[in-house]
Write a structure and sequence with these properties.
alpha/beta; D-Maltodextrin-Binding Protein, domain 2; two-stranded antiparallel ribbon; about 45% helix
């Protein structure tokens, strides 16, 4: 257990101004620390521990919780206006970091993370460190890692889960029986939000969004991935698949109406929570099924914490980041089933025991073969996702996705040319 005296000493008297002062509710450096968190299992878990931080730092914490989309919209509006009323931001490094850092909205944490021996920046997984670093400068700390995993009903596939995408399609199609309230497969189909999950199919077919700086979405490998994913959802998926994201998929699986789902492993508790799931005790986990290029799911730092560059409480905000993403807190969170971004936590047998055994094996497999991105690595990520999602939606709807992909690829090439000019921080 961290003692307050050790916490203060490690933080550094020069780096953390006003730490010993009791928090006040005003707007100055000694006011309440204001956090914006996404509606995510990590946010739920850190809220339960927030009293520990308040005791250590002698500072009150005010928390706002929003959906992922609301978080992004809030940041874009407030930070564009240089608003000082957010101190700590839970954010998606792959989605927001390039744009936010380029705009000067994120505090530079490079010296703080690298010069603090007890924080141990080297203990953070290398891929996760890379995602929060731009041009050698660190703008956030990773807090959650995730991979794409197969969720399945053990009672419906007693011989075990499919190991390949071909087997997944065949089994999902066989079990698909909408007349009797059973869907073979459910996956994200909304154009923008589905791109992250589609990426695992793309990589496993041997494709990528960007190849040598140019669009890769009309390559033979990408076309094969678009065809497969569209056919899977069209022939074995629910009605209205193009309107579905995680929020719609989770409840129908939990109600026992779906045989297979592929989605992020970090949100597995949403699928098996005994308070909401009728099939939690019958749910199994497996690695992403292998395609022609093998099993290549995304393996990413999906969420991080950053400090608002306009906050008058930047020192106290770093103090929170240091505690929330430090070795001790990450191990404790991982024991509760939240996959963190520290090597020490993954090597801790007690921390690994927080996951079901088959899920832990799936995570290990995804870490070994995964790709460290789940969307185009560009500044304007939202726009890029809209573009590359077009052929996927066309395929799900049974339209001419090949023509759509070729047309979209030209648009994406133009986009990448403009993006290259914007990448400089």
């Amino acid at each position: 257990m961290i003692r307050r005296r050790d916490f203060l000493r490690a933080a550094g008297a020069g780096a953390i101004a006003g730490l010993a002062a009791c928090g006040r509710s005003g707007d100055g450096p000694d006011g309440d620390l204001r956090l914006v968190l996404a509606n995510h299992v990590w946010g739920d878990a850190i809220r339960r521990r927030i009293g520990e931080f308040e005791d250590l730092a002698h500072r009150r914490v005010a928390i706002s919780t929003m959906t992922a989309d609301q978080v992004s919209s809030t940041y874009n509006v407030k930070l564009n206006a240089s608003a000082p009323d957010i101190d700590v931001m839970m954010y998606r490094p792959l989605q927001e970091q390039l744009l936010f850092a380029r705009n000067g909205w994120l505090a530079d944490l490079t010296d703080l993370v690298t010069r603090d021996a007890q924080y141990d920046w080297g203990d953070v997984l290398e891929g996760a460190r890379e995602r929060v670093t731009n041009q050698g400068r660190v703008f956030g700390v990773p807090i959650v890692t995730e991979r794409s995993a197969l969720y399945y009903r053990r009672d419906l596939v007693p011989d075990g889960p499919p190991a390949t995408l071909d087997e997944l399609f065949a089994t999902a199609a066989r079990l698909h029986d909408p007349a009797n309230d059973m869907i073979g497969f459910a996956g994200r189909g909304q154009r923008n939000f589905a791109v992250s999950q589609f990426s695992s199919y793309l990589y496993s077919f041997g494709g990528d969004f960007i190849v040598d700086g140019r669009s890769g979405i009309a390559s033979p490998e990408a076309l094969a991935a678009y065809e497969y994913y569209g056919r899977l959802l069209r022939e074995a998926g629910p009605l209205g698949a193009t309107n579905m994201s995680l929020e719609q998929i989770t409840p129908i699986f939990a109600q026992g109406k779906v045989a297979f789902v592929i989605d992020a492993d970090s949100v597995y508790t949403n699928f098996i929570n005994p308070k909401t799931s009728l099939v939690g005790d019958r749910t199994g986990f497996a690695p992403f099924p292998a395609g022609p290029a093998g099993s290549r799911p995304y393996n990413i730092a999906s969420w991080g914490l950053a400090v608002n560059a306009f906050s008058p409480r930047r020192d106290a905000a770093w103090e929170f980041l240091r505690w929330a993403s430090g070795p001790e807190t990450v191990r404790a969170m991982q024991r509760d089933g939240i996959p963190g971004a520290r090597t020490s936590a993954w090597q801790d047998p007690e921390a690994g025991a927080g996951f079901p055994a088959d899920l832990a094996a799936s995570m290990e497999a995804g870490t070994a073969t995964g790709v460290p991105r789940d969307r185009p690595d560009v500044v304007q990520v939202g726009r890029a996702r809209d573009i590359v999602g077009r052929p996927m939606v066309a395929s799900i709807l049974g339209e001419d996705f090949v023509a759509e992909a070729r047309d979209t690829s030209d648009e994406f090439d133009d986009f990448l040319t403009r993006d290259a000019r914007q990448r400089r921080i």
